[in-house]
Amino acid sequence: MDLQCLLLIALFFITFSIYYFSSLSKEHKNKGYTSYPLVGLLPDFVKNRNRILEWVTNILADSPTNTFVFKRPGFRGVSTANPSNIEHILKTNFENYPKGARFTYFLEDLLGKGIFNTDAYLWKIQRKTASFEFNARSLRNFVIKNVREEIQLRLIPLLLKNAASKSNETIDLQDLLERFAFDNVCKVVFNEDPACLGEDGKSGGEFMSAFEEATMLSSGRFFYALPYLWQIKRMFNFGSEKRLKEAINIVHGFADKIVTARLTSKIENDENADLLSRFIAKDEYSAQFLRDIIISFILAGRDTTSSALSWFFWILSSRPDVETNILEELKAIRKSSGKSLDDTYDLDELREMHYLHASISEAMRLYPPVAVDSKCCLKDDVMPDGTFVGKGWTVSYNTYAMGRMENIWGKDCKEFLPGRWLENGIFQPENMFKYPVFNAGPRMCLGKDMAYIQMKSIAASVIERFEINVLDTECPEYNLSLTLRMKKGLIVKVRERYVSM
């Protein structure tokens, strides 16, 4: 090839590049990102990595259909906050949108073949068993019993001790709620009490700390700028992958011991039977499979409720009007039942807390525990809004962004308004595809009702006894994890509330 030919090729490439980037600049001027040749939106992804939820929310809000198509090295995808698309993904064309190989591969080291990391047959058999058990009155009673004990014997005494401290010490409320949730979910899942919310506040922490690090580092694999970089780190066992391996060994070791012991002494499926015993009673699962199942349920029960309540208490600290309304509702329930402040609420009384239910739901609308969920497209498809989805593409629905879409919630979408959930004082649930906080369709969260039982029990008991003063009123930074955790915790001062209930 002569010099003249090379110059012509170079001139063509320069001309094409100028035209291409010029057209991209015009095309994406108001969309918040630019798609470059070969690397796609990678440069903008790296730039906005630490504020990815806000960045994607702005892109989706600028799109006429609240959907956009993107590419990065290694994969192509679609992100959407469109309720019609979400119904299509999670229900109408459910079989075409499984978790997919990428998602399950990234989390397989920790979750194995557990219910939240499987598709098809393995998912269906776990879902069938879990669905039957979660609808059983005995398991619900077991959950309520454990929540009551954790509140009465640990949470309230710990907060009373802190409130009575003359040094007026601060406390990380998010950490407290995570330890509460961890104790509770471990008792419900395999009837073991790690006592993370023990008297010293730090008991049984090794398993919880390892579990927390394992979930953080596993989810971090999704946010690498260059795909498969984490695989190289895992291959040579260094950095974050070395720490992940060590954390997973602790988690799996703890769970394996429990499963092995339980398999040699089965517990009957009675009022005090935990979830593990109920799965063992089926005589269908190996020890490793049982371990994967319980780890998945611990993940779901521990991180979601504590995240939701942390954001709820942060919002409540700046809304005394909402707090007053909650207190009035609780006072009326106490008066009607004749119970004292030392008594915990029963299930019927929790159901009467319509305003509190609305307030927690509104907090999760703005700060959903699982901010983004993703699927894989098996066959070429077209969304209801006309968006083409190619075979093998990643499809994500952004619950965080959905709570901030004007065409879904109105011009006041960014405001915290519990009243939007109430009609004549009675809580009215929203369409699950407009509010997919607990997922929707066949994968709808089985523990939704139990989550509300736990969250309302904690919130009611804490609010009526204590004033929670958040020290930093600025919106907390969040961690890039499987759930929306506050990066630096929720630092508060606690003072006992002196009011007549």
From TrEMBL:
GO terms for biological process: lipid metabolic process; secondary metabolite biosynthetic process. It is found in: Membrane. Heme binds at C445. Its cofactor is heme. One of its GO terms (molecular function) is monooxygenase activity. Gene3D superfamilies: Cytochrome P450. One of its GO terms (cellular component) is membrane. Pfam families: p450 (PF00067). It is a single-pass membrane protein. It comes from the Eukaryota. Keywords: Heme, Iron, Membrane, Metal-binding, Monooxygenase, Oxidoreductase, Transmembrane, Transmembrane helix. PANTHER family: CYTOCHROME P450 (PTHR24296). Belongs to the cytochrome P450 family. This is Cytochrome P450. It comes from Kingdonia uniflora.
